[in-house]
Write a structure and sequence with these properties.
The complex is a heterodimer of chains A (297) and B (605). Chain A has 297 residues and is mainly α. Chain A has one domain. Chain A has helices spanning 2-32, 39-55, 60-83, 91-112, 139-161, 163-173, 175-180, 185-211, 220-233, 238-258, 267-281; strands spanning 118-119, 129-132, 135-138, 213-214. In chain A, α1 (2-32) runs parallel beside α5 and α6 (163-173) crosses α8. Chain B is built from 26 helices and twelve strands. Chain B has helices at residues 6-30, 32-58, 65-80, 83-89, 95-99, 104-126, 131-151, 153-156, 171-189, 192-202, 204-209, 214-240, 250-263, 268-289, 305-320, 331-335, 400-407, 430-435, 453-461, 470-483, 499-511, 529-546, 557-563, 581-586, 588-595, 597-604; strands spanning 293-294, 297-298, 362-371, 374-384, 389-393, 415-420, 423-424, 438-440, 517-521, 549-553, 566-571, 574-579. Chain B has a six-stranded mixed β-sheet, sandwiched between helices. In chain B, strands 4-3-6-7 form a four-stranded antiparallel β-sheet, with helices on one face. Chain B has a two-stranded antiparallel sheet with strand order 1-2. Chain B starts with 5 loop residues before the first helix and ends with a helix. The chains are: A mainly alpha (297), B alpha/beta (605). Chains A and B meet through α4, α9 and α11 of A and α7, α13 and α15 of B.
């Protein structure tokens, strides 16, 4: 029972990080129909900012917002430089463009920073644990869960209460009509990227604080998982992205913890097979986007 | 079965094969590094073309194809490894596999068959997903297969190098593999399933409404392309002699996708252009990467020059020509268009559309459609007899188009039953309903935009039921184009036509199915008075000569009144009047719905 509880906490922490990443992908996808492969590189940029801040002796409380800011800036720049020229192209074109951006960035990191993984200085408190009765929870896990909750509440408020957020939701429903109503396309898309950068930045801080290192390919694996989480939840659906992220976190942690030794080697294929089964049952994802399949004919 | 004349396809296929042979002869004579580079190029090109067969024709990008390359490479390696060798390097191999030793060709065939079987199973899932979701599912496939190969350590040596594979692939084997792939890919594009798949890529809803069973065509292309990629995988395995699962993962997936995308994924020409240009560029950049002496100036070594260079090239191509360097047409379509002009008999021998023999009536019984809280169509009943023109009118948002969508199967009804004679068609998929002789056009034109007018119409004509031959379908297409007066535009791309002509193509496409019933959703929208009159004349002729039952939705009240035998009026999803045009026009409910209560009082006063 204790093991189960412990693993559940781990699953919530990991799933929360996936959920934040998947949300970032979903926001961009819902506004411009693009799957952003370079989302992982936003994480990496954020991770390196943390690393350099640590080397420069910047206190952690300041380096965290700086790292998040770096991801936001990078996301907005990425859109401005690389994605604006292909904005109205097909989904495949946008996907390939973002993949090229991701490759170029990865090579740049390898050349300009380091090919190997580098340690990141973290405050000692993060590595400690808090006792809840009988069982211990790592401070970093608690921080991850807390940060995820705060981000979800913030996002909900932002999308429902602010004019930019409402404009983004309108654009996700019907971009041409939103523009006719006076919504500025550039502002909405830049806003979507900034938001996805924010989420990637937070996810990166959480990711790094579990591992205390960064490498040039750091963002690749978690974002890959986030892609899968976003279709698991229903592509372009924000609630779906959160649900998919958490479900994937649970599948992953539980299969690591509870699969017999002989099957451990296959835990990734088995986890993904579970995802596939869920998709067979619900081809459009757990919580499909509301305007899925309502194309006007 | 192909939809282009054989003499044309023979040329389209022969030229690339000759080029491959010529390149192979050069490589075989020069030898050394050039020969090795060419072998890798041939294998890559075969894989890229194979990926293009699915991605290009279906429009769904796949990241998963390298898993079939891997499966095939491992399968054929295990089957062709000498038994003694296997006992040494793979001591825990299951006895059945340990005892087996096949020669190269047999191992190759088994490997391809096995890969296609895996592709079929994976396809059952992927075929249920659309667009970007399908793409991400292929990504999952790649990860799953990679994980399984690493995990199945007793058979594959896990993440370690699998070595000792007989080196069977010389330059001629590679060239043959490449030529086979190119020929199959080029022929598939203009095969019956290829044409249907391309139509579905351009417009999924229109494709289904014109009788194309999209899932079936997609599955066929998926399995076939997996087979070709598997062929390349076997060749690669027997060229390298040793490989590990890493060879069939993201890095190489991206390298091959880059070729596919830069060249243009919809054509065989694109695959060739992409493979050639990326191979050339990376050969040049690779030399730069090691640091090079340029006019006495020593350039520094820069790690990753090749990948950054290729990344920048992809960006440049995407910014400038997002369809890829080769664009949307094959080289032969560009250079030899005169070769595939097909002559249809003229005068009395010209093909004609057959009059329908249908005697069944189409009946919708209390059909309802709810969108969440909104009831778009509320218990509407409607019938349409052969040889009858029924007009469906109502204010904006009254549910006319939704009703058409329900009857034609584009949308599922929430409740109610639609029958044609004794056949219940309510829960049938749209393409089966089209096959049963119920054709339609769309309010906002839905043509297969990048296909020619002839291909647009043929893609529908091939789905008529009972099944007919390609020649019969071609005759029906010609007759349908002729009927709508656009035969002279047959070879133009649909998206280059004027608005009125696009509407006519849409009707011709529906007619080519030789349907019993035809639904027209605002056929006269955007037409001027003369065009509208000509259209009405055509529609009457459809009823009188071919015996079709027509259901026409339009806002143009004078048109509906003059054209229709009977008019049905919808308002807010409910049927409010039905009858002869003159009577319906005087119906007070109809006047209220159209003009509002107050106005009517004004008129009365």
């Amino acid at each position: 029972m204790e093991l189960f509880l412990q693993q559940t906490v781990n699953a919530v922490a990991l799933g929360g990080t996936y959920a934040l990443l998947a949300l970032g992908l979903a926001i961009v996808f819902s506004v411009m129909g693009m799957i952003n492969f370079a989302h992982g590189e936003l994480m990496t940029i954020s991770g390196y900012t943390l690393m350099y801040c640590g080397i420069a002796g910047v206190p952690f409380v300041i380096s965290v917002p700086l790292a998040i800011l770096a991801a936001i800036l990078a996301a907005v720049l990425m859109e401005r430089i690389a994605f604006r020229p292909v904005r109205n192209a097909s989904g495949a074109t946008m996907l390939v463009t973002s993949f090229a951006v991701a490759t170029i960035l990865q090579i740049l990191f390898q050349n300009l920073i380091a090919t190997r993984s580098k340690p990141v200085a973290l405050p000692e408190g993060l590595a400690q644990s808090v006792a809840f009765g009988d069982f211990l929870i790592g401070v970093n896990k608690l921080a991850a869960i807390g940060a995820t909750i705060v981000m979800l509440i913030f996002l909900n408020w932002f999308l429902k209460r602010t004019s930019v957020g409402i404009a983004m939701r309108a654009a996700a429903e019907d971009f041409p009509v939103a523009r006719l109503m006076g919504v500025r396309a550039n502002a909405v898309i830049a806003g979507a990227f900034a938001l996805s950068g924010l989420l990637a930045g937070v996810a990166s801080v959480l990711w790094v604080s579990q591992r205390a290192s960064v490498d040039p390919l750091m963002g690749f694996v978690p974002v890959l998982k986030a892609f899968i989480a976003s279709i698991l939840g229903g592509l372009g659906s924000l609630t779906g992205a959160v649900a998919g992220g958490f479900l994937l976190g649970f599948i992953e942690i539980y299969s690591t913890a509870f699969l017999p030794e002989s099957l451990q080697e296959f835990k990734e294929p088995i986890g993904l097979a579970v995802v596939v089964l869920v998709l067979l049952w619900r081809p459009n994802g757990l919580i499909p986007s509301a305007n899925f399949g309502t194309e006007k004919v | 079965m192909t939809v282009l004349p054989w003499r044309f396809l023979a040329i389209a296929v022969l030229v690339p094969v000759l080029l491959v042979i010529a390149a192979a002869m050069v490589g075989a004579n020069v030898g050394g590094g050039v020969e090795r580079t060419l072998i890798v190029f041939f294998i890559n090109l075969a894989a890229v073309a194979g990926m293009g067969l699915y991605c290009g024709n279906s429009g769904i990008l796949s990241f998963g194809h390298l898993s079939f390359m891997g499966i095939a490479a491992y399968t054929s390696a295990i089957l062709s490894l000498p038994v003694a060798m296997k006992n040494m390097t793979l001591p825990n191999l299951p006895p059945v596999l340990a005892a087996i030793h096949l020669d190269f060709v047999l191992a190759l065939l088994v490997a391809i068959a096995f890969s296609m079987l895996v592709a079929y199973v994976a396809g059952l899932v992927i075929a249920r997903l659309e667009g970007a979701a399908a793409t991400i599912a292929t990504l999952a496939l790649l990860i799953i297969v990679h994980g399984v190969i690493i995990g199945a350590r007793d058979i594959t040596r896990g993440s370690q190098s699998f070595f000792g594979v007989p080196r069977e692939t010389d330059i001629w084997v590679a060239a043959a593999v490449c030529a086979v792939a190119l020929v199959i890919v080029r022929l598939f594009r203009d095969s019956v399933p290829g044409l249907k798949l391309r139509a579905a890529r351009e417009d999924l809803i229109a494709a289904k409404a014109n009788g194309i069973g999209v899932k079936h065509e997609r599955m066929l292309a998926w399995v076939l392309s997996a087979g070709l990629v598997a062929l390349a995988g076997v060749a690669l395995g027997h060229f390298l002699g040793a490989f590990s699962p890493k060879k069939f993962y993201f890095h190489d997936t991206f390298a091959l996708l880059a070729m596919l995308i830069v060249g243009g994924m919809t054509t065989m020409t694109g695959a060739v252009v992409g493979a050639v240009s990326i191979t050339l560029v990376s050969e040049i950049l690779r030399r730069l990467e090691g640091g090079i002496d340029l006019f006495g100036y020593q350039l520094p070594e820069v790690f990753g020059t090749t990948q950054i260079g290729i990344g920048l090239i992809i960006l440049l191509v995407m910014f400038r020509r997002s369809d890829g360097l080769a664009g949307l047409d094959e080289w032969d379509e560009r250079l030899l268009p005169w070769l595939f002009r097909r002559k249809m008999p003229e005068g009395d021998d010209a093909p004609k559309l057959a009059a329908t023999k249908n005697e069944d009536t189409l009946v919708a019984d209390t059909v309802t459609k709810r969108f969440a809280g909104l009831i778009a169509v509320d218990k509407v009943s409607l019938s349409l007899a052969p040889g009858e023109i029924v007009g469906l009118i109502g204010p904006n948002g009254s549910g006319k188009t939704t009703l058409l969508n329900l009857i034609s199967g584009v949308l599922p009804a929430t409740s109610g039953v639609v029958t044609k004679g004794d056949t219940v068609i309510t829960d049938m998929p749209a393409h089966r309903i089209a096959g049963l002789g119920i054709a339609r056009t769309f309010q906002n034109i839905r043509l297969f935009r990048t296909l020619s007018v002839r291909q647009n119409v043929l893609a529908a004509a091939l789905n008529a039921w009972p099944k007919r031959s390609v020649a019969e379908a071609e005759a029906a297409s010609a007759a349908a184009l002729d009927w709508m007066g656009i035969a002279d535009k047959a070879e133009s791309k649909a998206n280059t036509l004027s608005y009125g002509d696009q509407r006519r193509v849409e009707i011709a496409r529906a007619l080519a199915l030789e349907p019993d019933f035809l639904f027209l959703d605002e056929p006269a929208a955007g037409m001027n008075r003369e065009e509208t009159d000509a259209l009405m004349e055509t529609l009457r002729k459809l009823r009188d000569t071919l015996g079709l039952g027509l259901l026409v939705v339009d806002h143009d009240l004078p048109l509906i009144v003059r054209l229709c035998d009977r008019v049905v009026v919808l308002n807010e999803g409910k049927l409010i009047a039905e009858g002869a045009p003159g009577d319906v026009q005087k119906n007070p409910d109809v006047i209220t719905a159209y003009l509002g209560r107050k106005r009517q009082d004004d008129i009365a006063a």
